[in-house]
Amino acid sequence: MSQPTGVIHDIGYRHYDGPRLGRGAAAVALGVHSLRGAFGLGRTFKSKIMPFLLFGTMMLPAVVSITIMALLKQVPMGYTDYAVFMQPVIAIFLAAQSPVLVAPDLRHRVIPLYLSRPITIVDYIGAKLVAMIAALLILMVVPLTVQFAGELLIDLPMPLHTHEYLAALGGSLLNAVLLTAIGLTLASFTPRRGLGVASVIAFYMFTLAASAVLTGVLESEGYRDASSWSILLNPFFLVNAVQSNLFGTQPTEGLPFPSGAGPALILLAVVALAVTGLYARYRKALTA
Amino acid sequence: MNTVVASITYRAMLGRKRIWLLALLPIALIAFALLFRFIGGGDESVAVRLMTTFAIGTMLPLLGLIAGTGVIAPEIEDGTIIHLLSKPISRPVIAFTKFVVAASLMVGFSVIPTYAAAYILIGTESGIASGFALGALFAGIAYAAVFLLLGVVSRHAVTIGVIYALVWEGLIGGYVPGARRFSIQQWAQSIADQVTTSAFLKSEVALSFAVPAMVIVVVGSVLWAGQRLRVLSLTGDE
Q1: What is the pLDDT of residue A177?
Q2: How many domains does chain A have?
Q3: Structural domain of residue A239, as residue ranges?
Q4: Which terminus of chain B has a lower count of CB atoms within 10 Å, N or C?
């Protein structure tokens, strides 16, 4: 194919002239590598402890409700508010693992090296986003599916909760997309892992407390509308509201969520804003 | 106490964009206080709710986490602590200096905003402002010491700290009364309850338990952090 021209400098390295897989395969490889990294696979034992501990905690309610179904023949815990119920665990997973995906590359300033390959900045960000979304989906969907499988096997004297289960799967996808967009963007602003964890969890705890305080006070002062909108500050309640409006399921604890397309629009706007921020961050990392 | 180490640590914590991580939560607290005052919610129950849920329940552990681990953990993470440790300064003195910096940051970013927010809402009524400020002061110092120790002991200090604040104090403390005895938040509320005469605040833990526990935790953590720093080994990044 190419003849060696500079004879003096040709010290006999063999050229690679096999097939080149190109941009798509590189992005897929990066995505798979990031997904494995989110669970600490292929890393040291120490970095596996936290993700698997959190995953185990996520499984606990499913196991408990299968036991309840088997022994007491009672309704299992709701599918649609599994994420709301387990939100601290999901938030800690997001905070602990988002920096794992983005911080090392930024700290060691290797982004330009990635981009010297066929991969583009959009591919890089896309691969990281998809990997984190997949990781969160695994975290949320596996317990739901195990519980549903349990319900199928145990054969309760009541109709199956198939609609709730499917709605919860849709909700999990929305949750994963929203949380990933926020988590990766916040984590990418600092190259240090500890600070990344702190800023993601600070965001979550802020929205948690702000939503609780605002809702309570606005309600007691008689601003019912404002109160029902302020619940949505918490990303888990935002997703739960979209999920109830979209699939017609019961909102958590009968919370008075605003109906209509409002919550869904907020969700889309937040995701778009976060992804734009992430893109801007990596454009800057490229020039720096 | 070493002033040079302290000034370097202050610069690391407050320099450039880092200060926003500390400043945003107090700003939000003041903003909430102004909002509630504006919509006419300036009564005791609102003030106590804002203080317990937001100021003591969220802002204080988060800032403790950011300040306590932030003064030392990033240096250990990227290995620059070696420059500090190779100087002829005793390691316990380094640990104590870092603790003093973290505690002073807690006063600036948590105690003063707590007082200001309560004052905006209800002035000095029932001693709520001073009570919660005093609670925040003691609990802030305790959080700073505990999270400083965590930052020296573990590389996952922030995650472990978050699990303590969210799961232990938030979830388990909500269901299991015994867990509340070992919650810094509850100790802060005991102190606040002692000062304020407001009927809306009920503390769970006796002051006779909270104060000695706090002293033991602070002194023990700082001493242990100093000891751990003497035998710190810098292993490679994961």
Answers
A1: 95
A2: 1
A3: 22-287
A4: N
